[in-house]
Design goal:
About 60% of the residues lie in helices and about 5% in strands. It has 7 helices and 2 strands, in the order H-E-E-H-H-H-H-H-H. The longest helix is centred in the first third of the chain and has 24 residues.
């Protein structure tokens, strides 16, 4: 019900305003999937770079192992929890909210604006934005609150 009744909140990052909409259960599922996919994503990045010269059999084995690992992980596991708590994870969470408020928004634009913030301000910006998102979602100051149980 919260996602139907809650209005997006507006935050300013750098010289641009962004609307943050409350996250839905589907958004949280997308965030979870992003977190558990990170071992595969990191491996693919490495294989495209420094691992480009590896034999095909080795690449295939590494990719298979990474996919098997990711397929068994849940948000209850340590690695996905670390991903969600990382700056990249927090950025992804905010992006899902921005995308919910404005489906035409582009991740690369949002990421560029956030990353343009001076070092040190980046974490403060993310923390401020997440606080606004939690308030819009009815979670107020409880970082452990279950978003699926938010009240309107």
């Amino acid at each position: 019900m919260r996602e139907v009744t809650a209005a997006p909140v507006t935050i300013r990052i750098g010289d641009r305003e962004w609307k943050l909409a409350p996250l839905t259960v589907g958004d949280l599922g997308e965030l979870e999937q992003w977190c558990v996919d990170q071992p595969v994503n990191r491996l693919m990045d490495k294989l495209a770079g420094v691992g480009a010269g590896l034999p095909v059999e080795t690449k295939t084995k590494l990719i298979s192992d990474a996919i098997n690992l990711s397929s068994t992980m849940t948000m209850m596991d340590e690695a996905p929890c670390r991903e969600a708590a990382s700056n990249a994870g927090r950025l992804r969470e905010l992006w899902l909210s921005v995308k919910r408020a404005d489906p035409s928004a582009k991740f690369t634009d949002f990421e560029a604006v956030v990353n343009a913030e001076p070092e040190g301000v980046f974490s403060i910006t993310l923390a401020t934005a997440l606080k606004a998102l939690r308030k819009a979602s009815g979670l107020e100051g409880d970082p452990t609150a279950d978003p699926t149980k938010a009240t309107p």
